[in-house]
Specification:
By secondary structure, this protein is α/β, with parallel strands linked by helices. The chain has five helices and seven strands, in the order αααββαββαβββ. The chain has two domains: 47 residues; 154 residues, Vaccinia Virus protein VP39 (Rossmann fold). The chain has a seven-stranded mixed β-sheet, with helices on both faces. It starts with a helix and ends with a strand.
């Protein structure tokens, strides 16, 4: 009983809990107006500790100019990456208007891997692929990365890997061996669902 009471009291005095509730409420309201996929409204930055951990780790890297996130949803992560230009590529074109409202510093592109060709810059400081790659076959993900690499120089890549004990995911890929890249960091998710692998190109 004491432990349960402590958990309740901790929640009542946790400012993050109220920030999370408020942010969810705002996003649910915006989802009804702009009709983007509902799941985007369920995990704002304030509700998912892993996002802050990942942003902090990425911003420690030697990145300056261009960040690209594929499947970036509402832009919670890439909006906080410290580069001059930020590109968010997503299949849900209904996100375009809301991202422009939430994040003036993001350039939104509708699509997936192939739309990298529409980005003018030849160098990408960091390419972020998380929260959706467990739905695709590993070869499709690697083909996408290698096709981008033919067009652009990629300095860093961030991928997520679902932990073995977690259920409900189609795939649990591991990316230790990606041609021309080496792992420099493996970051634990505070929520214990996944790990984040940061790889650096060997030729840069």
């Amino acid at each position: 009983m004491t432990n349960k009471l402590n958990r309740i009291l901790k929640r009542l005095f946790d400012i993050n809990f109220y920030s999370c509730l408020f942010d969810k409420w705002i996003l649910i309201l915006l989802q009804k107006i702009y009709k983007f996929d509902k799941w985007h409204a369920n995990a704002p930055y304030s509700c998912r500790p892993y996002k802050k951990v990942l942003v902090n780790e990425i911003n420690k890297l030697d990145i300056n100019d261009v960040a690209v996130e594929i499947g970036g949803g509402l832009g919670d992560i890439i909006s906080k990456i410290k580069t001059k230009k930020k590109y968010l590529i997503d299949l849900d074109n209904k996100l375009k208007k809301i991202i422009h409202i939430l994040h003036k510093n993001i350039i939104f592109i509708n699509g997936s891997f192939d739309e990298i060709k529409t980005i003018y810059e030849k160098n990408i400081d960091i390419l972020i692929l998380i929260n959706w790659i467990h739905e695709l076959d590993k070869n499709d993900i690697l083909d996408g990365i290698y096709n981008i690499k033919k067009q652009k120089k990629i300095k860093y890549i961030v991928l997520d890997e679902i932990n073995d004990n977690i259920q409900g995911y189609k795939y649990k890929h591991r990316f230790e061996n990606i041609k021309d890249f080496t792992t420099i960091k493996l970051i634990d998710d505070p929520e214990k669902i996944r790990k984040f692998r940061i790889l650096k190109c060997k030729n840069i």
